[in-house]
Amino acid sequence: MSLRMLFALAALCLGGALHGADNTPLPGDSLYHLDVTLTDQDGRDFPLASLRGKPVLVAMFYTSCRYICPLIIDSARGVEHALDASERDGLRIVLVSIDPDRDDVAALKRISDRRRLDTGRWSLVRTDAASVRRLAAALGVRYRALADGEFNHTSELVLLDADGRRRASSEASGPVPVESFLQATRALLNASRNDPPGD
Amino acid sequence: MKTRTLLLSALLSTSALAADADIWIRLPGHAAFASVLRWEDQADGVKVAPFELMRTPISNGDFLRFVLHDPAWQRGRVPAVFAESRYLEHWHGPVQLGPGVRGTQPVTRVSWFAADAYCRAQGARLPTWAEWEYAAAADAEREDARSDPAWREAILAWYSRPSNTPLPDIAQGTATVHGIHDLNGLVWEWVEDHAAMLVSADNREQGDPDVMQFCGAGALSTDDRENYAVLMRIAMLSSLQAADVTGNLGFRCARSIEGARP
């Protein structure tokens, strides 16, 4: 075995330790078993399961919604702002549209720009209608299309751990986060940082 | 292994082709169907576009073929996020019905996720509640038998049957005027939007994490008090999580018809 191969092997092992969570089987209650492809506000496609590795705040919304949906963004942002800088770096925020017919990439981009979301951390995403239904079922979000094109829907923020397991949830509450939900988010972020997945 | 898979898929596709007309029934739909759920936004009735519905519920035999074809849905392999621990527990093994379980009985103890996956594998989907309720409103002679007390009595009599007796085989009773079997009287059935039916009246109050909150308008009222046979079904379906299973809940699939308008 050449020295180069040894180096390559060592790098592989190291990589395996750092990204160990990606190689181990998903826990049975992980949402990342869902075979769903998401498309973000910049038109990038990625599998839902690729979110594995960091805690994620997930919610469902639609861009033409006037009442609760802006509040959903406010609520996720409220959590984001309440965290300290190092905690914040460990979190991703993903908002999934329940209105795939009208929420194309351009519509997602419009809201992302208008709300000045940091797309390093935030993704506004769309997927096909059947995947929306499955994702909502897994998240416990209930929604119904109304005759006028609006939707009735629950406005839950769901906190997933690095392996995609549901850890906490909170109804959208506006810019001031629900304290218990913030604490759960913080505890998870600090735990992930001190105990990287795979250790 | 490869030959087996090939054989199996050949078997599946031939039987699908040969039996297509036996499996699917086309329903004309309704421009303004009076659902028991009187949504505020659909006061004049629900539009049900023409669609196709399976003539019978999915049987144990059908579902066995599915899990043989897609082992990810076998008992013991399916992740907990998609099905709770009692998933298909009445079968003898993951790919074995065993004594006392007939291939001709309707499959039960399947989760919404499993039912959804089965239908998608057939190029189909679960029916919506409106489609299901519309199809199930018929009896052997009428498209809408719901105002007939005898129709309601028959459903309530079925509900009161003890659930510890073995399930009859599918397609034993009379078909509806559309030619569909077992919508009432055999098993309960998943619908695509089971979680969406009882989203309670609009509530934009903030602060209480236990209160479901909704965006947009669209309150529900159920002004057909006589029809509590149907309301009981709605309440049961609404109370379930998508990974739940029960001993008398099965499903059948539906297909949209391209370009069809109610």
Automatic annotation (TrEMBL), chain A:
Cystine connections: 65-69
Species this chain originates from:
Pseudofulvimonas gallinarii
In alphabetical order, the GO MF annotations are: metal ion binding
Ranges of residues in domain Thioredoxin: 25-190
What UniProt keywords apply to this chain's record, in alphabetical order?
Copper, Disulfide bond, Metal-binding, Signal
Keyword Metal-binding included in the entry's annotation: yes
PROSITE patterns membership: THIOREDOXIN_2
Recorded hits in InterPro entries, A to Z, give: SCO1/SenC (IPR003782), Thioredoxin-like_sf (IPR036249), Thioredoxin_domain (IPR013766)
Positions with a binding annotation for Cu cation: 65, 69, 153
What's this protein's name?
Answer: Protein SCO1/2
Q: Decide whether keyword Disulfide bond is in the record.
A: yes
What residue stretch is flagged as signal peptide? 1-20
- Which Pfam families did the record assign? SCO1-SenC
Matching SUPFAM superfamilies: Thioredoxin-like (SSF52833)
Family listed:
Belongs to the SCO1/2 family.
From TrEMBL, chain B:
Assigned keywords, A-Z = Signal
Q: Origin, by domain of life? A: Bacteria
Give one GO term, molecular function aspect.
formylglycine-generating oxidase activity
Domain spans labelled Sulfatase-modifying factor enzyme-like: 39-255
Matching entries from InterPro entries are given as:
CTDL_fold, Sulfatase_Mod_Factor_Kinase, SUMF_dom, SUMF_sf
Q: Which residues form the signal peptide?
A: 1-18
* PANTHER family documented for this protein: FORMYLGLYCINE-GENERATING ENZYME (PTHR23150:SF19), SULFATASE MODIFYING FACTOR 1, 2 (PTHR23150)
What is this protein called in UniProt?
Formylglycine-generating enzyme required for sulfatase activity
